[in-house]
Give the backbone structure.
Amino acid sequence: MAAITETPTLNIAIKRYPTNEALLDGKVPSAKLSARFDEVEPIHNAFAPMAQRQIYDLSEMAVFTYLQAHTYGKPLVLMPVVMASRHQHGCIIFNTEFHKHLTPADLPGKRVGVRAYTQTTGAWVRNILMREHGLQLDSVEWVCTEGAHLAEYREPPFVTRVTGKKLIDMLVKGEVDAAILGNDLPDDPRFRPVIPNAKEAGPAWHKATGLIPINHMFVATTKLAVSRPDLVLETYNLLRRAKDMAPAKGPDMRPIGIEALRPSLELVIKLAAEQQIIPKEFTVDELFAPWREIERKGA
């Protein structure tokens, strides 16, 4: 953890995006702190050790990982900044070598692979399948190659765990009928989206609802938030400044601020409870109560 000095060094796990590149490249200086950035690749490898052992001072974190960390009382504080989001409709694919056609209506009774049941992209895709296509989640066997980032979590009974296998290999061999992938979505002509018109459906959903399909946010340890709220607030401001320096491309999918995030987070919390990722819903204000304290003390 960071030592309390005039200019302490904070250990930060983060993935490089256009919206934080200025910060990582040293173009957003701070007189209050120094940062040691760990650009973990893939970034989800940082989530479990941060959630379970708080090995960094601050870290990018999947929103569903944080909801579970909050559920299990982990000493982390959620910061109101989105690091990553994407249109999710195209993230569930099938192999045309085994299925000539496969649509959401065909999924009951099928095996659908996903890295972990709690993976954020998987949760968003299931939300689409439920709300837009009427899929009952327990009508599908969800096949996972990894567990949750929080050891306390137990998956629903319609989830199967396999070991020693890669999701893409299972899709290639026909061991699953479809698979949900995120940053590792392959560019392969054998694979097609399960959701019709997926390329257009994601932007259309965003335009119609105004909501952001949040993947990753940012967290600080409670230890740092209590001892140096000013440094947590400074990190937030550095992220904001870096984002302001990034070139604008289309609608803002990485908003900053509680009110900007509120409607999207309300849906995130609702679908997490619906999908048995967390046992009960929280309010957005509950999640950000520690952040409000940081704003009060750190200003």
About this structure: Residues 29 and 62 are 26 Å apart (CA to CA). The radius of gyration is 20 Å. The first strand starts at residue 9 and ends at 13. The mean pLDDT is 95.
